[in-house]
Amino acid sequence: MRHGQFILAFVLLGILPLRAQVAKEGSPVSWNLPALGFPIYREPIDALPLHDLYQEDNESIGLKTESFRFASAVAVDFSTAHHGTWRNLPNGDRIWVLAMECPNALALSVEFAHLDIPEGGTVYLYNPDRSDFAGPFTDAHRRIRAITGTAPIRGRSLVVEYYEPFSQRGRGELVISSVARSYRPVNSIPAMPGNDCAEVLTGDHQGLSDAVLLLLTDHAQRAMTGTLVNNTRYDGEPYVITALQGLAGDPSSLVFVHGVKGGCPDDEVCWDRFVSGAELMFEDNPTGIALLRLLQAPGTSWKSYVAGWSTEDPGLGWYSTIQHAYAAPQTVARVFTTPTMGDGSFSQMLKVNGWNMGNTFTGSLGSPLFNPRGQLIGIFSDGESSCLQASGDFFCSFSQAWSWLEPFLDPIEGNNANIAGFYPAFDLSPDSRSPEEALILFPNPASDVVRIQNESDESIARVELLDSAGRVMRSWDGGVPVFSLDDVAPGHYVMLIYQSSLVSRKQLIVR
Description:
Shape: globular
CATH superfamily of the largest domain: Spermadhesin, CUB domain
Oligomer: single chain
Largest sheet: 10 strands, mixed
């Protein structure tokens, strides 16, 4: 697996969504109808090569530098045009149903390469006995030629159902490009030597835990941890900070699962609330930190927390990390000794020399390190500690990456050394967005071209590309939404987007 690299595969005609949060709401149309009365075709999915997968895992099961693999993805090409079954309803509406089955999978998830849902349409995912489902996806999740990831639905069979109103007949299309087959249970830390000291969350950490997300990467085959972080505007901008080395795949395919804190039956996956997709705002290879922005904020009813942060030297007190080790519900590790600065996999990292309670494990990658005031100061990257021995665990230093994080997390330029966290009332509906937020830059990072998706009411007059010294490197007519980056050197840039009433600034990474 290649660490620290996103494989960006946006197509120039792609459209990024404004809202992509998914929870268990309502029910599929077919559940409220009499028996469908027609056969549902099942697409067979190759069985998991369990022996080979376990053998590969044994070579890296103790490594903390990698995300945790719990599933194996297979490429497919299923679409509403050529697969599944359509049924016309008496009022002219219709539904499309496709079932998939993998004989030895514990759970299944899909990636949509094309998710074009018209107004009034819905898409649900569920298992045949209806004990687990996700949805609805609606026209708010519309992504044309851009990837949409999903969280797993438990069981060896998965049904995808698309409902299309009569007024929108023929306007929707689904293309499924990948199916991830879960082969490891993720309901708890595996029982094995060195794992018996995992600590469950206590009341002292419940607030901070609401900021910690289970992050699915690499076509939903692997899991790591990410954390929602606050900014000095206190506006609930859904920034997520994590470890760069664990990210793989198109950033629009990442899945962020909220509230995985236990209570799931044995051998079952219960990831009910998730956000699909993000854009990469910043990556810093020297420090190993990545900053993402969710394409949609978590639902207000989810009660998500955005963590505060600090760039100041750590003080005395209890330090803690909250993690989704082994893709399991959250556990915590605590230490009373002040972390020290040391050289790890990346330059100048925070080092914890053994934990007083709990520990880190495989899959802890990306977990936050909180200081005694509950502020984020580091991101887990590597370590050799276990329940059997006290050894060093390394965290990427938040303060070391501050010069790159500052434009995003201190937008008011208040020179803040630390801020508190809070519970925002997330609302990123089109009516609540600022004009600048209605301009979406993608792909980002970019190499050959960059596109601006203009969701505002004003046209774009001119676009300029500035280097880190503020020099204008390129200037384009805003009438064309695709901008060539030929002969632009790799680096960090600012795009100035001129409209009649304002000038917007967007960070751009060129590779």
